[in-house]
């Protein structure tokens, strides 16, 4: 009988650690086969997922003996938390374990887009040498605006400050007297959007945040601002982003998360849009973070199965 079903990629050492003590079924593509998943989970006490597996509906209903869900990441929007709570199923995210990878993605993208020097391969191969066209900007002295000021945003703030940035943030859920505000100016959303050179979104996707960064928000941004979304698709209006970039009303954007993943038909929207970096929801995924996330979740799932958590 299987004890643990793993539906997406997980660090091999962590899978080996689990397999030494439990019967493990690991299929990194199982997230795309919900009918097979529903059959496989019927008797298992533990399920380990990333963000592509929908832990809800038929899958949860079929998983009658489920005790614990290990989440190889932080966001919980792919898990029906209400049903898990009601059924006493423990859900363990890998809080903190992929933070550094996200921070490096945000800072790296910001530097690349501010500098604007890395989109010239085709011209250079064709014999051009566009030296004066590629005079970009430094990150030092720029203002970093964080929309959401949780743990990953605070780490991003710390890295930005080390690079000489000033930092402002919007987060109505972090009280004004919270010590975290020592590292960022506390502003309303409009003020963060209108005064920042680099805007980075760090919010969960909820009914309240859905569509928060829409046409009005883009209209408030500086025309040379850089926008980074490595949080969740759906928070930012993709058509509004494309409109702003095409109209030259935004300096650039790095987008890692999308309303629909993979993009399928929606991908056409982004074709030939200038100063845009698209990545497939990998801001939190590096060799190092995969090791940390997988090790942490494996430990927590084993602890839950053994009555230690
Ligand atoms: O929620 C998260 O932590 C990130 O979106 C990364 O999730 P993933 O590792 O499941 O892709």
TrEMBL record:
> What GO MF annotations does this protein's record show?
oxidoreductase activity
Gene3D superfamilies found in the cross-reference section: NAD(P)-binding Rossmann-like Domain (3.40.50.720)
Domain called D-isomer specific 2-hydroxyacid dehydrogenase catalytic: residue spans = 5-308
Residue ranges that the Swiss-Prot or TrEMBL entry lists as coiled coil: none
**D-isomer specific 2-hydroxyacid dehydrogenase NAD-binding domain: residues covered:** 108-283
Which EC number applies? 1.1.1.-
Family named by the database record: Belongs to the D-isomer specific 2-hydroxyacid dehydrogenase family.
| Protein name listed in UniProt | Hydroxyacid dehydrogenase
* Phylogenetic classification of the source organism: Bacteria, Pseudomonadati, Pseudomonadota, Alphaproteobacteria, Hyphomicrobiales
């Amino acid at each position: 009988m299987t004890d643990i079903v793993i539906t997406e990629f997980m660090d091999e050492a962590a899978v080996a650690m689990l397999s030494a003590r439990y019967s493990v079924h690991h299929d990194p593509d199982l997230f795309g086969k919900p009918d097979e998943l529903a059959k496989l989970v019927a008797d298992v006490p533990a399920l380990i997922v990333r963000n592509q597996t929908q832990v809800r509906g038929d899958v949860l209903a079929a998983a009658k003996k489920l005790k614990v869900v290990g989440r190889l990441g932080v966001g919980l929007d792919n898990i029906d938390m209400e049903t898990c709570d009601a059924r006493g199923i423990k859900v363990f995210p890998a809080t903190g374990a992929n933070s550094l990878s996200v921070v490096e993605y945000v800072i790296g993208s910001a530097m690349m887009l501010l500098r604007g020097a890395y989109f010239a391969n085709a011209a250079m191969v064709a014999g051009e040498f566009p030296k004066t066209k590629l005079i970009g900007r430094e990150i030092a002295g720029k203002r970093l605006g964080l929309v959401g000021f949780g743990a990953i945003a605070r780490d991003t703030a710390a890295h930005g400050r080390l690079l000489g940035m000033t930092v402002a943030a919007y987060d109505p859920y972090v009280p004004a007297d919270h010590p975290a505000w020592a590292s960022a100016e506390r502003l309303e959303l409009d003020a963060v959007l209108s005064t920042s050179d680099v805007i980075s979104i760090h919010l969960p996707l909820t009914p309240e945040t859905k569509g928060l960064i829409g046409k009005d928000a883009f209209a408030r941004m500086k025309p040379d601002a850089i926008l980074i979304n490595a949080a969740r698709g759906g928070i930012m209006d993709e058509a509004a982003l494309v409109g702003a970039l095409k109209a030259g009303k935004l300096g650039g954007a790095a987008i890692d998360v999308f309303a629909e993943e993979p993009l399928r038909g929606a991908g056409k929207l982004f074709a030939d849009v200038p100063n845009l970096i698209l990545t497939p929801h990998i801001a939190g995924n590096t060799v190092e973070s995969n090791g940390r996330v997988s090790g942490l979740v494996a430990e927590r799932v084993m602890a839950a199965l053994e009555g230690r958590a």
